[in-house]
Amino acid sequence: MGDPHTDPAEQAETVIERLETEYPDSTISLRYSNRLELLIAVILSAQCTDARVNAETEHLFETYRSAHDYANAPQEELAEALSSINFYNNKASYIREACEIIVEEHDGEVPDTMDDLTDLPGVGRKTANVVLQHGHDVVEGIVVDTHVQRLTRRLGITTEERPEAIEQDLLDIVPEGYWVQFTHLLIDHGRAVCTARNPDCSACVLADVCPSEKGDGEIDLASGDRWD
């Protein structure tokens, strides 16, 4: 087991410092060229890999170019275009309905407030944070996806379980200037090393400060389960 800092803020600072060295080019991996494409991509990314989303949207964005296009697309047609995406029927419905609202209430433009974004079908706080940060350059929160949720618990930065509660913890722990980059760093590390089922603790630059480190630790703090 590693020897973590007792102060969560110090723990977060060490995590940021080391992961910045490990992943110097860390950034959002979804591909998009405008705010609408970003919104669509993030809706599609729920419970689906960014790589799969990028493969699908390469063709999707050539066919549908405006909120009006999505809003007027037949459900069956849009669902078929998204058929390789997890839960594609639901996501097609979310996208169509969200774009109807964007056309009717926002003059076809993706809104730029948390309230307006989370009023759209299929858009929760995580999605809204991504769109605000990368589409509008508005940073008012921290994106908590499954990687951030897992790693912040595994590293002992938070004991909260729900994404909303984890975010509130992190807002008081992570320096505001790192609210965006913190997410990208943890996502990269979660994909490369600290995976959900079989983290490679022997290759982890955070092993010595991780209370879940498999060498000596018995419990995965992310799940509360014993290591196999």
Explain what the structure shows.
This protein has eleven helices and two strands, in the order αααααααααααββ. It has 228 residues and is mostly helical. It has two domains: 103 residues, Endonuclease Iii, domain 2 (Orthogonal Bundle), CATH 1.10.1670.10; 101 residues, Orthogonal Bundle (Endonuclease III, domain 1), CATH 1.10.340.30. A two-stranded antiparallel sheet has the order 1-2. It is elongated. It comes from Halovivax cerinus. Its EC number is 4.2.99.18.
Concise overview:
The protein is mainly alpha-helical. The protein is 52% helix and 2% strand. Helix 2 (35-44) runs antiparallel to helix 8, helix 5 packs across helix 6 and helix 9 (146-154) packs across helix 11.
Q: What is the rounded distance between the termini?
A: 15 Å
The Cα radius of gyration reads 19 Å
**CATH class category of the largest domain:** Mainly Alpha
Task: Please work out how many helical segments DSSP would assign.
Answer: 11
Q: What low-confidence regions span 5 or more consecutive residues with pLDDT below 50?
A: none
List keywords for this structure.
Endonuclease III, domain 1, Endonuclease Iii, domain 2, 228 residues, 52% helix, mainly alpha, two-stranded antiparallel ribbon, 2 domains, 2 strands
